[in-house]
Amino acid sequence: QNGTITYIREVVTGGKIAAIEITYPTSERSSGDKLAETVPLTLKFVG
Fold first, then answer.
1. I need a labelling partner for 42 at 20 to 30 A (CA). Which of 1, 8, 9, 13 fits?
2. Which ranges constitute the DSSP H helices of the chain?
3. Domain-embedded: residue 29
4. Domain with 24 in it
5. How many domains in the chain?
């Protein structure tokens, strides 16, 4: 929408929520898609 791509991932467990939102222009889709595929996999709870 509006020339951007937004990727949102939420992880909910044990009453905790971790979330990440990545927004990037469609013109940078190649780089942005790689980031959106890699970074959310590292999403975890600390402490």
1. 1
2. 29-38
3. yes
4. 4-42
5. 1
